[in-house]
Amino acid sequence: MSATPITQPADAKAGTSEKTGGFKAVPNLKNVANAWTLGIVAVIVVCACIAVWLVAGRLPVGVVLGIIVVAFAGVVFMGMFAFSSDEDILNKEGFKALDIVKSLSEPAAVASFDGHVLAVNPAWQDAGGGAKRLPQGEHAPALFVALREARAQGIGRALVRLGGFDYEMVVSRLGEDLVLVRAASQGVLGNGLMLKHENPLAVQDDAFLPDEAKPEVRSDMPAAVMDAFAEAAPFGAALVMGDELFTARVKDFNTVFAALTEQVPDKLSGMEFGDLVTENSRAALEEKLGTGKSGPFDISLTVKSDRAVQIYVSDVAGGFSLYLFDVSEQKKLEQTLVQSQKMQAIGQVAGGMAHDFNNLLTGFKFRNDQLLLNHPLGDPSYEDLNGIRQIIARAEDLVRNLLAFARKQTVKRVTLNVGEMVSEAEVLLRRLVREDVKLETAYGRNLPNVHVDKGQMEMVMMNLVVNARDAMRAQGGGRVNIRAEAMTQEEAKAYGWPEAPAQGAALIEVSDTGPGIPPEIAAQAFEPFFTTKPLGEGTGLGLSTVHGIINQAGGHIQIVSPPGKGATFRIFLPVWIVTEKELATPKPVAAKPVPKDLSGVGRILFVEDEQIVRGIAAHLLRQRGYEVLEAEDGEEALAIIEAENGRFDLLISDVIMPGMDGPSMLKLARPILGNVPVMFISGYAESEFSDLLEAEQNISFLPKPLDIKTLAERVKEQLAA
């Protein structure tokens, strides 16, 4: 239903005097002559007849007819004189509603200050303004402030949703009791230009205002009173009296204002507004009010609860009207979004850093391996070179942590029994705890299988056990428990994994008897670079890496830490269901031992944009008897392949390179190369580009950082195949 513009009939305009009550009574009578009023008349007639019968003992027909005539006469009287229609209100103010709204192309409506819509134009109806009142609900606060500004200053603005779209509404005062509301797309009316019906003088010139309102435009401020709307509003409203906002004293307020400020009503009355706001908020609010805006402004109240509050400030006679809004939920959503974007950005940066660092580590490893071959065990330089190799191994672990956090680590998943996995990891974990820490495990025999990377899961349990050990150091030791069990979907949901799969979950629980983790720290525990350990004892990547590994495996991890009862990390992994295809796949034959002789013969094209990696790798392969041609990018590699007519025995290529990447280069070179085997090397995970090679055959992958032994072994395997 849409509100219809209220206009006068043409004949009424021509022949009606200043008080054309006879003609006006007809539409008024139509307004009251409905089912409800007729029902009320019937009830009155029946009650009157019963009363006469009880008093007189009889009910003459003439009396009944008289009662009916009197009742209908009362209805006619009310319709003619007692009710005022929307048109009456407009005519009383001297307006022609249809002339006002039809003169505007944007959505427009004429309304009263209480929000009742009197007339609209078709554009307003098309925009979704079919209600008899201005937009309400969550958009009422801003529109309420705009109406107050229009009453005080002639014009108010508010961003309001109408029919599913946001509009910037300009509210212009028309006379004493009416306003003109215009809606435009956000920003269209916010360019500082004043349209002619925003200007009260222009409105006068166009005969929009009645004659008695033309001599001057009201510039006085509204009276300092709390109206019924503010009293019952779902937001805080208050009236403070004084020349300065922060020294003004609270005169009147609603219950929501008292609840937000956490003040007893008797104490709140007469308090200075400055006593309700923190010192920092005062300075910030004074600066913002100096811009001429009324809000919304973020402020901090002197209350115990951590609540985000915004305020609107409006001038009234002798003081200010204040409107407080609790925006805590909105702020939480904003923080969640910002945190999510920050984590995503950090993950991308970490992945890029790990890729570049892998290239440097490859160069270090190649050089160090070559020096170790020239300085074997017994050589005075062997110990130093071996120390460098250990440092490189620690750097590799750090890179793996970064890649696991960024979820870009190359994963080699296998099917493992949860009990066997915990049992095998127990041997390693006992070496990590000190004598004052006791490690206990509990797992049954009939535990399910999971599909995970074994090395990553060992890293997860090792990280959690080391954290538990360090947490109990201050209290002189304690106990670490590792428990594993199988759970159905319902049990996993009840235990802490709402998205548990239908096949159930395997639980690995690592708990300790330490001091526990406070809630504020537990909320940040999985954030990267967050650590409570002293400087130099932790990188802050441990738990974020654990979180990344578990999520990458399709699982879930949570922290449970009751006060004073230690901390428990619950790891949920989906149960792996063996498919018929896997059952039909024969078990792999044991790999043949790799020959100790890593030399060979063959023609290799090595494509790598990092000169350190390309130069050293090509040099070491040449030392082992291979003929190696080098290319620094995909374009140069294509030119070499065309020039050599594809006469290569093996293509080794990086994946990500400036310009043309490795997979794109291979698609163009494959018609020339034929069925030549291709080995891709990369610091990124294989899954990052595997979809680009779905149609390719005879492809293998070798993750960075490389060492010469592994590279030589893989090259010889590829050429032998």
From TrEMBL:
Q: Mind telling me what this protein is named?
A: histidine kinase
**Which keywords fit this entry according to its UniProt record?**
Kinase, Membrane, Phosphoprotein, Transferase, Transmembrane, Transmembrane helix
UniProt keyword Repeat present: no
Catalytic EC class: transferase
Lineage summary = Bacteria, Pseudomonadati, Pseudomonadota, Alphaproteobacteria, Caulobacterales
Q: EC number(s) in its UniProt entry? A: 2.7.13.3
Q: Which catalytic reaction applies to this protein?
A: ATP + protein L-histidine = ADP + protein N-phospho-L-histidine
Q: Where's the Response regulatory domain? A: 603-719
Which ranges of the sequence are coiled-coil? none
The terms under GO molecular function for this entry are: phosphorelay sensor kinase activity
Domain (Histidine kinase): give its ranges: 352-577
Question: Which InterPro entries does its entry note?
Answer: CheY-like_superfamily, HATPase_C_sf, HATPase_dom, His_kinase_dom, HisK_dim/P_dom, HisK_dim/P_sf, Sig_transdc_His_kin-like_C, Sig_transdc_resp-reg_receiver
Q: Which residues carry this modification: 4-aspartylphosphate?
A: 654
